[in-house]
Amino acid sequence: MVLVTGKELLSVAKEKNFAIPAYNCGSGQLLNATLKACEEDQAPFIIAIHPDELSFLEDNFVASCIDAANKTKLPIAIHLDHGASYEQVIHAIQLGMTSVMIDKSLAPFEENIEITKKVVEAAHAVGVSVEAELGTIGNTGNNVEGGNQQGIYTDPAQAKEFVERTGCDSLAVGIGTSHGLYPKGLQPKLAINVLEEIVKETGIPLVLHGASNNLDSEIKAAVTHGINKVNISSDIKIVFAERLREELNDGNTEKREPNVLFPAPMKETEKVVHQKNQLFGASNTAKYYFQ
Ligand code: 13P
């Protein structure tokens, strides 16, 4: 199909009660592996690019994403993950992203509202959708997305006020996940009761960040109870990096061609993408967007 906005993707997911996966495509290999697996699954998805990933990949990577999206038969959005400022968001819109996140979750409530509102006004003027964040995602270290050291649950009443005053299209909520991998022995239990309250109060699609390394049963419960976008970064990168390490350390010191080194790591990423698409209920949902 074509490039669509985040709002178009998430509104169908909300109506049909599944979640759109957002994969952080921090390299061309991750983009191609993700795209291939999603095409095979007929799963619409979001190409998420964090500002640090964008600085590394450079602006023309977004042009490749747009081209790739326009050549598939899937509805795809290209999304700025964790935009930290108004300027970063405007830059992403200028590059052609169809969805942006403004993350001022670490700022005081009123400041979060003020900046999010300003971003919404600018983005909506050019048909781009906006994800905001209230409450915080924990941070386990060793990841690009950051977050608070300990996540703070989103307050449902505050979420209602935030959505009404900002006009954001979707909201990232704090219900107990953290970006990155959890330390040994720590397995968070997600606050599904808090999520249910936020769903009732806001009525807009909700987003789960930091969804790697959680129990499948916890993620499934979150999707069943109203999460319509799930962000995955670490889980698709770990398997890639582990397999690449094996390729580099297999004793063949002559190995150097990217087209020899990367296919096996990409296959590992594809396997994870297939599993997540299934878990989020996103497989075989592309058909809903063609009606
Ligand atoms: P994980 O690294 O836990 O998958 O978090 C990804 C994320 O939330 C991107 O915004």
Describe this structure in words.
This protein has a single domain, classed as Aldolase class I (TIM Barrel, Alpha-Beta Barrel), CATH 3.20.20. 47% of the residues lie in helices and 15% in strands. The chain has helices at residues 6-16, 28-41, 51-57, 60-71, 86-95, 109-125, 156-166, 192-202, 216-224, 234-248, 258-261, 263-279, and strands at residues 20-24, 45-49, 76-83, 99-102, 129-134, 138-139, 170-173, 178-179, 206-208, 227-232. It has an eight-stranded parallel beta barrel, surrounded by eleven helices. Strand 3, helix 5 (86-95) and strand 4 (99-102) form a beta-alpha-beta unit. The longest helix is centred in the middle third of the chain and has 17 residues, at 109-125. The structure holds 1,3-dihydroxyacetonephosphate. Residues 24, 81-82, 143, 145, 179-180, 209-212, 231-235 line the site of 1,3-dihydroxyacetonephosphate. The active site is at 81 (proton donor).
Elements, N to C (H/E) = HEHEHHEHEHEEHEEHEHEHHH
Radius of gyration: 18 Å
Overall shape: it is globular
CATH H-level homologous superfamily name: Aldolase class I
Mean pLDDT: 95
Distance between the termini: 12 Å
CATH-assigned fold name: TIM Barrel
Structural class: alpha/beta
- How is the largest sheet built, in terms of strand order? 1-2-3-4-5-7-9-10
Bound molecules: 1,3-dihydroxyacetonephosphate
Instruction: Please give the count of helices.
Output: 12
Q: So what's the CATH class?
A: Alpha Beta
**If classified by CATH, what would the architecture be?**
Alpha-Beta Barrel
Estimated share of beta-strand residues:
15-25%
The percent of residues in helical segments reads: 40-55%
Main sheet attributes: strand count, strand direction, barrel closure: 8 strands, parallel, barrel
Low-confidence parts, pLDDT < 50 over ≥5 residues?
Answer: none
What is the number of E strands? Answer: 10
Structural domain count? 1
